[in-house]
Design goal:
about 180 residues
Length: about 180
């Protein structure tokens, strides 16, 4: 393939996938600038490896996998850099957190924060990105069955965490005021 063909192919891939990959990064980074860095690095890797870039839907899933690894590297370096700035990190996360429109959202956010990064990532790929277990398997580079099992277990752990954040939901069937005994 000529350099012009590679360039045309890359531009087409970029136009077709940019919004999805940007959304993926924005929902996982603590700032828009960090998300932009992750997206830029993802597409730099795609350009360098354009000859190996899969066609069609497989290409999009390949990009999700690249973005996931870039994001993991980004998170590791960020943790090292921000180790002594926990308060600042909390403030940044608060500033960029999605606004809560329902009282229930706080419980969901708290339950998600109780999960391991891998569980949050699985749930996010399924819910935010709308990927099915087969597509998740491609992104995570594992078998479809492994992705399905991991997703099932992550959902169970989320359910248990949610029960911990909203214990009153377990007792909803009980009356709020006890009746006087006569």
């Amino acid at each position: 393939m000529s350099e012009q063909d590679d360039r045309s192919r890359f531009e087409a891939v970029y136009r077709r996938t940019y919004e999805q990959i940007l959304g993926y990064a924005v929902r996982r980074c603590s700032s828009p600038e960090d998300a932009a860095d992750v997206v830029a690095e993802t597409y730099v890797i795609a350009w360098r490896r354009i000859a190996e870039f899969p066609d069609g839907e497989a290409g999009k899933l390949w990009l999700y996998g690249v973005a996931r690894r870039v994001l993991a590297n980004h998170r590791r370096s960020e943790r090292r850099r921000l180790t002594r700035h926990t308060e600042l990190t909390d403030e940044i996360e608060h500033l960029y957190a999605a606004p809560s429109h329902h009282g229930e959202q706080h419980g969901v956010d708290e339950a998600m924060s109780m999960l391991a990064d891998s569980d949050r990532e699985l749930l996010a790929l399924a819910l935010w990105e709308g990927l099915d277990p087969g597509e998740i398997a491609t992104v995570l580079d594992c078998s479809r069955n492994a992705a399905r099992i991991r997703l099932h277990r992550a959902r169970k752990r989320f359910s248990r965490a949610l029960e911990k954040t909203r214990p009153s939901a377990l007792f909803a069937a009980q009356p709020l005021i006890e009746k006087e005994s006569r």
